[in-house]
Amino acid sequence: QVQLVESGGGLVQAGGSLRLSCAASGSIFSIRAMGWYRQAPGKQRELVATIARGGTTNYADSVKDRFTISRDYSKNTVYLQINNLKPEDTAVYYCNAASYSKSSGDYWGQGTQVTVSS
After folding, report:
1. Residue 68 burial (CB count, 10 A)
2. pLDDT of 103 above 90
3. Do 69 and 78 form a contact (C-beta atoms < 8 A)?
4. Are the C-beta atoms of 57 and 64 separated by less than 8 Å?
5. Residue 85 phi, psi (nearest 5)
6. Residues 6+ apart with CB under 8 A from 74
7. 16-34 confidence digits (pLDDT tens)
8. What are the backbone angles phi and psi of residue 64, rounded to the nearest 5°?
9. What is the spatial distance between Cα 48 and Cα 60, in angstroms, rounded to a whole number?
10. How far apart are CA 41 and CA 33, in angstroms?
């Protein structure tokens, strides 16, 4: 099993910055990639960014110029740096871990709320 705990969300002003953290525990060796998703009220959950174990990153077009995903293996933690926050970024942000095992599938955290005010 893999457990994921997100932190770093909160209320921020537009134009500010925020760094989200996702701490993983359990069967860390089974993870092949991790990512961040978000879900705003009235919208579907969408992929924000991913990072593979080898370091390859991928971003949604809407956030590519402002968001950066990174990792710290020593802390078993993945980060999402968000710059120039916009009200449209308001959402619950979820951490995801993809397993090498086909039977295990994906693991999810409980989410952290990001609210951006004008």
Report:
1. 16
2. no
3. yes
4. no
5. -60, 140
6. none
7. 999 999 999 999 999 999 9
8. -55, -35
9. 5
10. 27
Q: Is the dihedral of CA 17, 56, 3, 45 positive or negative?
A: positive
Q: Decide: 41 and 28 in contact? Cβ < 8 Å.
A: no
Structure tokens, 6: 């997100």
For residue 71, which amino acid is it? R
Distance CA 91, CA 45 (A): 9
| SS3 sequence of the chain | CEEEEEECCEEEECCCCEEEEEEEEECHHHEEEEEEEEECCCCCCEEEEEEECCCCEEECCCCCCCEEEEEEHHHCEEEEEECCCCHHHCEEEEEEEEECCCCCCEEECCCEEEEEEC
Around 81, how many Cα atoms within 13 Å sit in the side-chain half-sphere? Answer: 7
Per DSSP bridges, beta strands 18-26 and 67-72 are unpaired
**Mean pLDDT value across the chain:** 95
Supply 71's token pair.
């990792």
